[in-house]
């Protein structure tokens, strides 16, 4: 019985009917000529496909399969037959790299983890086509993931990255923004064979244009999800180069009214107890617009006195409060110059910085290392929007699971939309209730979270919880969990039913008292933009 369950478990990556149609259309358009071999990143399976889409794919690539053969796949393997069967029918050498317990799609059966492993020597520069459909957005180590895809591809070969850009908060660790694709391609001299938007459940691709979302009547309720599809061709034997976002081309989030509301409440309710030293990632600006009283209150609560002239940056604000302060430059962050043995601080902030660093995981690791035990980390990360000034939108799923494996106490979490005066206390579901149109937003939405670092321990890399049951035991042994101050292998906790249950078992619940719950703001700002009023009473 247990074995049957394992066989029918859903893979994190699947060839849907529209994905097969897109491949078929690429082939008919001459974009997939001269492919001698093929490798998937992730153990792909076939899902929700009709016989027609499967037959069309196979015949388009020069093969044939009877309806009886296809039916037998589903009878034998349930709703998710291995993708390898498709490629067997078109006589194309096929493999995949995956960390699953049973990589049935794989020919060689290599157990592989994108967080840790590099492309094996015998597979470097071997493949004509490297396919990443819905895999990399679940992996913490982005630097290694894109590196592996690059190394597997032979010069002249193609890479397909098919990753979410906008969508709901619980499907992935992050979403890729257009700027990331453009900078990776430019830095590595890739030829772009095409870049498109894909709107979920559509068989069509829309050629990417930076202005397109302004002209599409999309709402938060309908966005599960919008993907960006990029087809690249490797042109050289050069090693992979990390993209670097030009510091002059973007602005940092900075200290604004909603941030100061949260910080003042956190001090007022003793969530944060004493700040004697602060490290800001980036030279953070200060905006006192509509917030002069909040800044004065914050400085006063830290034991200082607000100056007569307005503060213009975080350094002057903390100087007035008598608090030791350091700004860590973006160039030092991007080049990983925050030393592990660096001085530690009571309060470390990431106000719109990690999303601009290609290997954002290392930023989180360095923040952990320079935060005092008992200290606080504040993250403000893009959650939703079409911002050309970031590489990623970072999802609450990642932040919560990073807290789980490192034993952080979650002091509070919020949703903020540009143009609002305050932030909404985060709820896993309330963003789904809001019928927000992209064209109505004045900017982006942000996820804000405060972590309390409780233990002096090594930083632990998260593995997305919803896919933990698919891992092999060998892979699971590489991941650790901080349980009451002791780092243990998280393998024994595989049977926990949900991430929320794990939060309860490992961390305790979120802080009981919401630090900001703006009832009037929710009514005035959001209800005018939504028809979804049913849940309002429960939320308030």
Mean pLDDT: 82
Helix content: 25-40%
Structural class: alpha/beta
How much β-strand is present in the residues? 15-25%
The DSSP helix count reads 18
Radius of gyration, whole Å: 24 Å
Apparent shape: elongated
Major sheet: order of its strands?
A: 4-2-5-6-10-8-9
Largest sheet: 7 strands, mixed
Give the end-to-end Cα distance, rounded to a whole number of Å. Answer: 45 Å
Description:
- With 540 residues, the chain is α/β, with parallel strands linked by helices.
- Helices cover 28% and strands 21% of the residues.
- It is built from 18 helices and 20 strands.
- It has helices at 2-8, 17-28, 51-60, 67-77, 84-89, 142-152, 178-187, 257-268, 292-301, 314-320, 330-334, 360-370, 396-406, 430-433, 473-476, 499-507, 519-526, 536-539, and strands at 14-15, 38-41, 45-46, 94-97, 127-133, 153-166, 174-176, 191-199, 206-207, 226-233, 277-281, 324-328, 345-351, 371-384, 392-394, 409-417, 424-425, 445-452, 480-483, 486-489.
- Strands 4-2-5-6-10-8-9 form a 7-stranded mixed β-sheet. A 7-stranded mixed β-sheet has the order 12-11-13-14-18-16-17, with helices on both faces. It has a two-stranded parallel ribbon with strand order 1-3.
- A hairpin with a 6-residue loop joins strand 8 and strand 9.
- Helix 2 runs parallel beside helix 3 and helix 13 packs parallel to helix 16.
- The longest helix has 12 residues, at 17-28.
- It is elongated.
- The protein starts with a helix and ends with a helix.
- 43% of the residues are buried.
């Amino acid at each position: 019985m247990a074995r049957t369950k394992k066989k029918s478990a859903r893979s994190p990556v699947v060839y849907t009917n529209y994905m097969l149609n897109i491949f078929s259309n690429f082939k008919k358009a001459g974009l997939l000529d001269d492919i001698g071999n093929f490798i998937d990143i992730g153990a792909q399976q076939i899902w929700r496909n009709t016989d027609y889409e499967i037959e069309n794919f196979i015949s388009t690539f020069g093969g044939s399969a009877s309806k009886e053969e296809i039916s037998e796949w589903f009878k034998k393997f349930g709703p998710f037959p291995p993708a390898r069967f498709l490629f067997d029918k078109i006589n194309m050498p096929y493999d995949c790299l995956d960390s699953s317990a049973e990589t049935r799609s794989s020919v060689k059966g290599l157990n592989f983890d994108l967080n840790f492993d590099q492309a094996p020597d015998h597979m470097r520069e071997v493949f004509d086509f490297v396919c990443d459909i819905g895999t990399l957005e679940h992996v913490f180590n982005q630097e290694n993931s894109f590196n592996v895809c690059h190394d597997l591809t032979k010069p002249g070969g193609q890479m397909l990255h098919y990753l979410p850009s906008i969508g709901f908060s619980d499907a992935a660790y992050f979403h890729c923004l257009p700027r990331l694709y453009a900078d990776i391609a430019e830095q590595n001299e890739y030829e772009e064979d095409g870049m498109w938007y894909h709107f979920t459940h559509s068989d069509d691709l829309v050629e990417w244009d930076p202005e397109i979302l302004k002209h599409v009547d999309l709402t938060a309720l309908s966005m599960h999800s919008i993907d960006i599809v990029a087809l690249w061709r490797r042109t050289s034997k050069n090693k992979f180069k990390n993209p670097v976002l030009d510091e002059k081309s973007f602005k940092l989030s900075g200290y604004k009214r909603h941030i100061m509301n949260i910080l003042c409440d956190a001090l007022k309710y003793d969530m944060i107890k004493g700040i004697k030293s602060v490290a800001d990632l980036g030279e953070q600006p200060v905006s006192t617009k509509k917030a002069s009283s909040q800044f004065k209150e914050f400085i006063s609560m830290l034991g200082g006195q607000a100056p007569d002239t307005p503060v213009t940056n975080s350094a002057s604000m903390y100087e007035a409060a008598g608090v030791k302060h350091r700004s860590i430059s973006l160039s030092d962050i991007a080049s990983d110059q925050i030393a592990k043995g660096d001085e530690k601080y009571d309060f470390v902030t990431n106000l719109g910085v990690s999303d601009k660093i290609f290997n954002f995981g290392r930023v989180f690791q360095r923040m952990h290392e320079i935060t005092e035990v008992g200290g606080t980390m504040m993250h403000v990360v893009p959650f939703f929007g079409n911002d050309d000034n970031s590489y990623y939108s970072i999802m609450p799923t990642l932040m919560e699971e990073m807290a789980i494996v490192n034993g952080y106490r979650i002091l509070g979490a919020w949703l903020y939309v540009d143009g609002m005066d305050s932030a909404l206390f985060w709820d896993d579901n309330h963003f789904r209730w809001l019928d927000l149109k992209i064209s109505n937003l004045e900017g982006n939405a942000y996820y804000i979270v405060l972590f309390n670092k409780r233990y002096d321990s090594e930083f632990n890399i998260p593995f997305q919880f919803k896919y933990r049951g698919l891992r092999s035991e060998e892979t699971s042994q590489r991941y650790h969990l901080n349980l009451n101050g002791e780092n243990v292998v998280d393998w024994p906790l595989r049977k926990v039913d949900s991430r929320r249950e794990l939060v309860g078992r490992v961390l305790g619940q979120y802080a009981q008292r919401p630090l900001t719950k703006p009832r009037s703001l929710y009514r005035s700002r959001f209800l005018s933009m939504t028809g979804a009023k049913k849940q309002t009473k429960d939320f308030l």
